[in-house]
Amino acid sequence: MNKIYTKLKLLYSQVTGNIGFFPSLIALMGLAFAFLMLYIEEQGVSKYFIDNFPWLVINNADTARTLLSTFIGGIISLMVFSFSMVMLLLNQASNNYSPRILPGLISNKKHQYVLGFYIAVIIYCIIILLSIVPTDDKHQLPGFAVLVGIILSIHVLAAFIYFIHSISQAIQINNITDRIFGAARKRLQTLIDKENEVEGLDIFDDVSDWHGYKSTSSGYLNDIAFDSLSKLAKDQDISIKMLVSKGEFVLVDVPIVKVNKELDEENQDMLQSCFGFSRSEIVKLNYVLGFKQLTEIAVKAMSPGINDPGTAITCIDYLTELFALRMLKKDNSYVVNDDNKAVVSLDTVDFDELIYYIFASLRQYCKADFIMMTKMLTSLYYLKNVETIDDSYKKVINTQAQLILEDAQAFIKNETDLKNLKEFTQKFK
Predict the structure, then answer these.
(1) CA distance 199 to 403
(2) How many CB atoms sit inside 10 A of residue 328's CB?
(3) CATH 1.20.272.10 correct for 199-283
(4) What pLDDT sits at residue 155?
(5) At CA 48, angle to CA 43 and CA 53, rounded to 5?
(6) What is the pLDDT of residues 337-386, one digit of tens each?
(7) What is the DSSP string of 155-169?
(8) Burial of residue 190, with CB atoms counted within 10 A of its CB: 0-12 exposed, 13-18 middle, 19 or more buried
(9) Is the distance from CB of 58 to CB of 141 less than 8 angstroms?
(10) How far apart are CA 42 and CA 205, in angstroms?
(11) What's the pLDDT score for residue 137?
């Protein structure tokens, strides 16, 4: 039963993350609402409105057909125009910033709601249009349903205006970097809040003789059912060591986990069901991706074709704040049982590894730019003086400062610039 629950939980996460989920759901709501309005019409609502508020109701079949047909064609045109513009802007974002930010832009829930509303109103108008039959009795026309269609179509215009405003804001680089930063910070803060003093860590010191189990699927490891994993460890009295980090791409038949006891086939299936794979990375599930995306935007901004150092500086500012928060997190993470004893050891990206690869990418593309090198040293100097959970982090920061100076000496030819950088680097000693 637990295995079924785990699979359903992971399936729910994947389905709700699909770009077509909410538009489809809203479209179905539009279909249901259309049939509800036809049922209300059968109860005589149009007759009531014609007798009491005749100016509100369309009582001519040809007029009703013309209005609904116009609404259907007009909304379809708006929908085509809206999402043609989206594709154009996404192409611009991919070329100017980074292709990796596109999933975040495409999966914007607000834009999905607008698309779903467009489709729902189109379906509603089609159903009501089909229900209009030639008759001399004005009470038999779905006049009230047509009135509702007019109101919904007016709201479509409002949604279109909102969509234009929203997409124009979403494509701005400041909003893109802020969204990535916000998602990464939220995920990182959640992990920090969950950290506490854990017992029984010594069992993970030597896992060389533990039983390894390989992945049966491939993709990005975006979901781990920690509750189910912890329950499996409790039921079978086992300890589990993850061999890959969450968010890492995993290939089939690659070892992903080690267990201190051999598991039977049923429990192996249960273990595999705790891992959810997908073909795309998600920042809100993996804060490291936020670091990567901000770095890629900065690197792309410093390329000769773009040449936008202002954007690169903004990204470094966001990266600095994220690193300052990361320095409050331990390198090791664990899943604990009810007794606060570690039962699952998670593979995480160490601070040393994270800051090295981020600054290595920046150094590669900014090593001849005095302003950018100074900005990176300023960032590192700030990190050197913030609160940290592990003093070894500051030694790593000093190492990065020396690497920046070495690159500057190799690629910056101006003696005055080099002198200023050397003086700045002295602060790290």
Answers:
(1) 38
(2) 17
(3) no
(4) 93
(5) 145
(6) 777 777 788 888 889 999 999 999 898 888 888 889 999 999 999 999 99
(7) HHHHHHHHHHHHHHH
(8) exposed
(9) yes
(10) 73
(11) 54
Give the Å distances, CA to CA, from 163 to 89, 115, 166, 176: 13, 9, 5, 17
Rounded Cα distance, 233 and 344, in Å: 8
Q: Which residues contact 33 (CB under 8 A, 6 or more apart)?
A: 120, 124
The first and second tokens of residue 182, run together, are 């916000």
Q: What is the pLDDT of residue 158?
A: 92
* pLDDT under 70: residue ranges of the chain: 1-18, 100, 103-107, 134-140, 196-202, 280-285
Which pair of structure tokens corresponds to residue 193? 């809040």
Gyration radius (Cα) of the chain, Å: 29
pLDDT at 304: 79
| Residue 263 confidence (pLDDT) | 85
pLDDT of residue 5: 59
The H helix count followed by the E strand count for the chain is 16, 8
Place of tokens 């039962």: 343
Distance CA(352)–CA(112), nearest Å, equals 39
CA angle 319, 321, 326 (to 5 degrees): 90
As a whole number of angstroms, the distance between CA 335 and CA 345 comes to 7
The one-letter amino acid code at 129 reads L
